[in-house]
Amino acid sequence: MRVRLAPARHLFGVTVLLLAPLALGQEPEEVLKVPRPKPTATPAAGESEAAPVLKVARPPRPAGSPATAPEAPPPPAPTRRRPAPPAPPPASVAEALPTCPADPHVCWAEGAVLLEATPPQPTAAAERLRLACEGGVVEGCTTLAVLLDRGDGVAADPTTAMRLYERACEGGEVAACANLGRKYRLGDGVAKDPKRALDYYSRACSPEQIVGCGGLGHLYYYGDAGIKDLARAAEAYDRGCVADDSEACLQLGLMYSRGEGRAADQEKSAFYYERACDLGLAMGCNNLAAKLSRGQGVAADPARALALFERACAAGLGRGCHNLGARYRDGESVAADPRRAVALFEQACKLQHAAGCAHAGFAHDRGQGIPRDDVKAAAFYERACAMENADGCGNLGIFAHEGRGMARDQARAAGLFAQACQQGNVDSCANHAIALHYGQGVAVDLARAETLYEQACAKDSAAACNNLGTLHEHGGSGREPNPSKAVELYDKACKLGLDKGCENFKRLW
Length: 509
Description:
By secondary structure, this protein is mainly α. It has a domain at 98-172: Serine Threonine Protein Phosphatase 5, Tetratricopeptide repeat, CATH 1.25.40. The protein has helices spanning 8-11, 93-96, 104-116, 122-134, 138-150, 158-170, 174-186, 194-203, 213-222, 230-242, 246-258, 266-278, 282-294, 302-314, 318-330, 338-350, 354-366, 374-386, 390-402, 410-422, 426-438, 446-458, 462-474, 483-495, 499-508.
């Protein structure tokens, strides 16, 4: 007598073991460009660094003038002419030097110094920048626009900011053109207009100017303006990196790593990641750490990799916290510390990193370094799923199916399995097939279940291979029983580690 496999309580997939891949990176958020003046002199020794004062070089002494005042000359010889009236006393040095608001360039320089002060003084800087802008110094217009754009030290005023950017750009200030490109590319306060963005970025990325090259690279890379050209993107990123644009360096590192637009070169990829990291971009540090941990393009250096992941995490990069947590969980290049790993996963989750939420949920689910807590696990899975993390959605589906940490809800479970399956989670495809096979929360649909079983089995889901075997053994979905095919599928499920597959194989063999 043939024994039909038990329903889903024996076949239902278990919680997926979440992996912690070291992602190569992602496009960072482009930042506003601020023109910076070159200092004309350094502060004198002993001056306070908290409130630096602009130093202006004294005008040169006239040629032939003595270093010190000469002694009084002898009285002139008698003459019949009336002596000339004495010359007025020379103006003081302070009166001879340019000042703000009399000189708008000084206003611009003073405003820039105030922004660089410790702490920065944007409110005081804004007044000087306004005077500079009104006096025709386009760099002052650009920097004032940035403050108005951000609401930094002044009331936010995006409309005036746009007007100032346009005025400065038309006046030849390339940082303003780059900022206009950013606004239109991202739709920041204006309707997205990639073609206008392309025009503005092109003005700021020319043979003479490179401040807008990073943004131009983004347009060519993603093809947002109708021109997708990876070679031109790489060239633009290269020039942007020369201009100390950390985002451009990062993107060029990604392109060398993936072989996009240029031949794959892991050594160059690591170089550009390091450049981005040195320029203060946390994602560059994270990606360089990934290279160092694998010895990809650089000599393997687990200790340095760990330090760079810590640096990226401290800078507020969720991905860095997640990758650091994986090392403490697995004891990779550091003593295993499951409790610290959980704290890092939770920190990554707070920083909106979806995989961090999923791993935090799994730690609470399995009691890794902390007591098991289904309610907390479900909450973290929920957050991960809300950020479209397939593992989070799949595991939340299991909790809904089993009533763990929440009310049991078969219909919701089926919907979560379908969602996770569409996002690429193979086990969720198998679990959704089970729901369709046995009518758990959805109507029975053997044809759809069989399709999902086949897809998941092809990707080595043991449960899917086993359950597809039951359809072939007993018939279904409009097919005749096929015991030989069932044996083949049971054998594969067994080799993939499923005990039920081994039992079924032995029973038929």
